[in-house]
User: Which sequence fits this backbone?
Protein backbone atom coordinates (compact mmCIF):
# COMPACT_ATOMS: atom_id res chain seq x y z
CA UNK A 1 0.00 0.00 0.00
CA UNK A 2 1.34 3.40 -1.03
CA UNK A 3 0.68 6.34 1.31
CA UNK A 4 0.64 9.84 -0.19
CA UNK A 5 0.30 12.88 2.07
CA UNK A 6 -0.61 16.55 1.77
CA UNK A 7 -0.25 19.02 4.63
CA UNK A 8 -2.89 21.71 5.18
CA UNK A 9 -3.16 24.33 7.91
CA UNK A 10 -6.41 24.91 9.80
CA UNK A 11 -6.64 27.39 12.67
CA UNK A 12 -2.81 27.58 12.64
CA UNK A 13 -2.50 23.83 13.19
CA UNK A 14 -1.10 21.26 10.77
CA UNK A 15 -3.24 18.43 9.47
CA UNK A 16 -1.88 15.83 7.06
CA UNK A 17 -4.37 14.45 4.54
CA UNK A 18 -3.67 11.03 3.10
CA UNK A 19 -4.78 9.14 0.03
CA UNK A 20 -5.90 6.37 2.41
CA UNK A 21 -9.00 8.27 3.64
CA UNK A 22 -7.57 9.48 6.96
CA UNK A 23 -5.95 12.58 8.47
CA UNK A 24 -3.10 12.95 10.94
CA UNK A 25 -3.44 15.84 13.40
CA UNK A 26 0.11 16.79 14.34
CA UNK A 27 -0.52 18.67 17.62
CA UNK A 28 -2.73 15.92 19.07
CA UNK A 29 -0.65 13.08 17.58
CA UNK A 30 -4.01 11.71 16.49
CA UNK A 31 -5.11 9.70 13.47
CA UNK A 32 -8.60 10.87 12.45
CA UNK A 33 -11.02 8.92 10.31
CA UNK A 34 -14.74 8.41 9.91
CA UNK A 35 -17.30 5.85 8.78
CA UNK A 36 -15.56 2.51 9.08
CA UNK A 37 -18.93 0.73 9.21
CA UNK A 38 -17.39 -2.36 10.82
CA UNK A 39 -19.84 -5.25 10.51
CA UNK A 40 -21.46 -4.16 7.26
CA UNK A 41 -20.32 -7.21 5.32
CA UNK A 42 -21.42 -9.58 8.12
CA UNK A 43 -24.78 -7.79 8.23
CA UNK A 44 -25.25 -8.37 4.51
CA UNK A 45 -24.26 -12.03 4.83
CA UNK A 46 -26.72 -12.50 7.69
CA UNK A 47 -29.45 -11.17 5.41
CA UNK A 48 -28.63 -13.57 2.59
CA UNK A 49 -26.30 -11.45 0.46
CA UNK A 50 -23.02 -13.29 -0.07
CA UNK A 51 -20.06 -10.95 0.46
CA UNK A 52 -16.46 -11.94 1.10
CA UNK A 53 -14.97 -10.65 4.35
CA UNK A 54 -11.80 -9.49 2.56
CA UNK A 55 -13.44 -6.03 2.29
CA UNK A 56 -13.09 -5.38 6.01
CA UNK A 57 -9.67 -7.03 6.14
CA UNK A 58 -8.48 -4.60 3.49
CA UNK A 59 -9.76 -1.65 5.56
CA UNK A 60 -7.95 -2.91 8.65
CA UNK A 61 -4.74 -3.50 6.71
CA UNK A 62 -4.86 0.12 5.50
CA UNK A 63 -5.48 1.28 9.05
CA UNK A 64 -2.51 -0.72 10.34
CA UNK A 65 -0.29 0.79 7.65
CA UNK A 66 -1.37 4.32 8.68
CA UNK A 67 -0.66 3.57 12.34
CA UNK A 68 2.79 2.26 11.41
CA UNK A 69 3.44 5.32 9.22
CA UNK A 70 2.34 8.08 11.64
CA UNK A 71 2.93 6.38 15.02
CA UNK A 72 -0.05 8.20 16.59
CA UNK A 73 -0.85 8.34 20.30
CA UNK A 74 -4.59 8.44 19.57
CA UNK A 75 -6.94 6.88 17.06
CA UNK A 76 -10.15 8.90 16.70
CA UNK A 77 -13.21 7.72 14.78
CA UNK A 78 -15.56 10.60 13.95
CA UNK A 79 -18.70 8.47 13.89
CA UNK A 80 -20.05 5.24 12.45
CA UNK A 81 -17.36 2.92 13.70
CA UNK A 82 -20.02 0.20 13.48
CA UNK A 83 -22.75 -0.52 10.98
CA UNK A 84 -25.29 -2.76 12.69
CA UNK A 85 -24.31 -3.49 16.28
CA UNK A 86 -22.34 -6.57 17.32
CA UNK A 87 -21.52 -9.37 14.88
CA UNK A 88 -18.64 -11.57 13.70
CA UNK A 89 -16.89 -8.66 11.96
CA UNK A 90 -16.81 -6.79 15.27
CA UNK A 91 -15.03 -9.79 16.81
CA UNK A 92 -12.41 -9.55 14.08
CA UNK A 93 -12.04 -5.81 14.62
CA UNK A 94 -11.52 -6.33 18.37
CA UNK A 95 -8.78 -8.87 17.66
CA UNK A 96 -7.14 -6.30 15.39
CA UNK A 97 -7.53 -3.58 18.06
CA UNK A 98 -5.72 -5.75 20.63
CA UNK A 99 -2.52 -5.40 18.59
CA UNK A 100 -2.29 -1.77 19.75
CA UNK A 101 -2.79 -1.77 23.54
CA UNK A 102 -1.00 1.59 24.01
CA UNK A 103 -3.03 3.42 21.35
CA UNK A 104 -5.87 5.46 22.88
CA UNK A 105 -9.15 4.75 21.09
CA UNK A 106 -11.74 7.54 20.85
CA UNK A 107 -15.21 7.23 19.36
CA UNK A 108 -17.37 10.23 18.54
CA UNK A 109 -20.69 8.47 18.16
CA UNK A 110 -22.47 8.39 14.81
CA UNK A 111 -26.00 7.43 13.84
CA UNK A 112 -25.00 3.77 13.33
CA UNK A 113 -23.17 3.44 16.64
CA UNK A 114 -25.76 1.67 18.75
CA UNK A 115 -23.42 0.44 21.46
CA UNK A 116 -24.55 -1.43 24.55
CA UNK A 117 -22.47 -1.42 27.72
CA UNK A 118 -21.09 -4.94 27.07
CA UNK A 119 -20.18 -3.98 23.48
CA UNK A 120 -18.47 -0.79 24.66
CA UNK A 121 -16.32 -2.87 27.00
CA UNK A 122 -15.58 -5.36 24.23
CA UNK A 123 -14.40 -2.58 21.92
CA UNK A 124 -11.89 -1.33 24.55
CA UNK A 125 -12.87 2.30 24.05
CA UNK A 126 -11.01 5.00 25.98
CA UNK A 127 -13.57 7.67 25.10
CA UNK A 128 -17.16 7.61 23.78
CA UNK A 129 -19.31 10.73 23.47
CA UNK A 130 -21.49 12.46 20.90
CA UNK A 131 -18.85 15.17 20.39
CA UNK A 132 -15.36 16.08 21.50
CA UNK A 133 -14.00 19.61 21.93
CA UNK A 134 -10.25 20.04 21.60
CA UNK A 135 -9.10 23.65 21.64
CA UNK A 136 -10.61 25.49 18.67
CA UNK A 137 -11.99 22.27 17.18
CA UNK A 138 -15.15 20.24 17.70
CA UNK A 139 -15.23 16.65 16.47
CA UNK A 140 -18.79 15.60 15.66
CA UNK A 141 -20.23 13.05 13.26
CA UNK A 142 -22.57 15.37 11.36
CA UNK A 143 -22.15 19.13 11.01
CA UNK A 144 -24.20 21.10 13.57
CA UNK A 145 -25.15 24.67 12.66
CA UNK A 146 -25.75 25.44 16.33
CA UNK A 147 -22.09 24.90 17.21
CA UNK A 148 -19.72 27.83 16.79
CA UNK A 149 -16.12 27.28 15.84
CA UNK A 150 -14.49 24.79 13.52
CA UNK A 151 -15.94 21.29 13.16
CA UNK A 152 -14.30 18.06 11.97
CA UNK A 153 -17.04 15.77 10.68
CA UNK A 154 -17.95 12.66 8.70
CA UNK A 155 -21.32 11.08 7.89
CA UNK A 156 -21.80 12.28 4.30
CA UNK A 157 -19.27 9.99 2.53
CA UNK A 158 -18.25 12.89 0.26
CA UNK A 159 -17.35 12.35 -3.38
CA UNK A 160 -16.58 14.41 -6.47
CA UNK A 161 -17.47 13.74 -10.12
CA UNK A 162 -14.63 14.42 -12.53
CA UNK A 163 -15.55 14.70 -16.19
CA UNK A 164 -13.35 14.09 -19.21
CA UNK A 165 -14.00 13.84 -22.91
CA UNK A 166 -14.16 10.07 -22.54
CA UNK A 167 -16.05 9.41 -19.30
CA UNK A 168 -17.02 10.62 -15.84
CA UNK A 169 -15.55 9.14 -12.69
CA UNK A 170 -16.61 9.46 -9.04
CA UNK A 171 -13.85 9.72 -6.44
CA UNK A 172 -13.89 10.13 -2.64
CA UNK A 173 -12.62 13.42 -1.26
CA UNK A 174 -12.02 15.68 1.72
CA UNK A 175 -13.99 18.95 1.82
CA UNK A 176 -12.63 22.04 3.56
CA UNK A 177 -14.16 25.44 4.19
CA UNK A 178 -13.84 28.11 6.86
CA UNK A 179 -15.91 26.19 9.42
CA UNK A 180 -15.58 22.49 8.54
CA UNK A 181 -13.27 19.69 7.50
CA UNK A 182 -15.42 16.87 6.16
CA UNK A 183 -13.68 13.49 6.16
CA UNK A 184 -14.28 10.80 3.54
CA UNK A 185 -15.68 7.43 4.54
CA UNK A 186 -12.71 5.30 5.55
CA UNK A 187 -14.29 2.03 4.45
CA UNK A 188 -14.12 1.37 0.74
CA UNK A 189 -17.44 -0.49 1.03
CA UNK A 190 -19.54 2.70 1.09
CA UNK A 191 -21.33 4.83 -1.46
CA UNK A 192 -20.35 8.40 -2.36
CA UNK A 193 -22.53 11.48 -1.92
CA UNK A 194 -21.67 13.96 -4.67
CA UNK A 195 -24.59 16.33 -4.02
CA UNK A 196 -24.84 17.20 -0.31
CA UNK A 197 -21.40 18.73 0.03
CA UNK A 198 -20.53 21.76 2.18
CA UNK A 199 -20.84 25.08 0.40
CA UNK A 200 -17.83 27.23 -0.47
CA UNK A 201 -15.44 24.32 -0.01
CA UNK A 202 -12.14 23.27 -1.47
CA UNK A 203 -12.09 19.60 -2.36
CA UNK A 204 -9.11 17.31 -2.05
CA UNK A 205 -9.62 14.30 -4.29
CA UNK A 206 -7.40 11.27 -3.89
CA UNK A 207 -6.49 8.13 -5.73
CA UNK A 208 -3.98 5.41 -4.95
CA UNK A 209 -1.30 7.67 -6.41
CA UNK A 210 -1.94 11.18 -5.15
CA UNK A 211 -4.06 13.95 -3.64
CA UNK A 212 -5.34 16.71 -5.90
CA UNK A 213 -7.12 19.96 -5.02
CA UNK A 214 -10.12 20.71 -7.23
Assistant:
Amino acid sequence: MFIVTKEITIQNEVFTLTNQRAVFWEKEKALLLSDLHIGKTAHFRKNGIALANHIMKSDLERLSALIEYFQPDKFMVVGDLLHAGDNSDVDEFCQWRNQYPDLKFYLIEGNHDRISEPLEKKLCLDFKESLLELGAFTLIHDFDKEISGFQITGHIHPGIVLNSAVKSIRLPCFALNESQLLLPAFSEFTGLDTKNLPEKSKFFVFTGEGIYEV
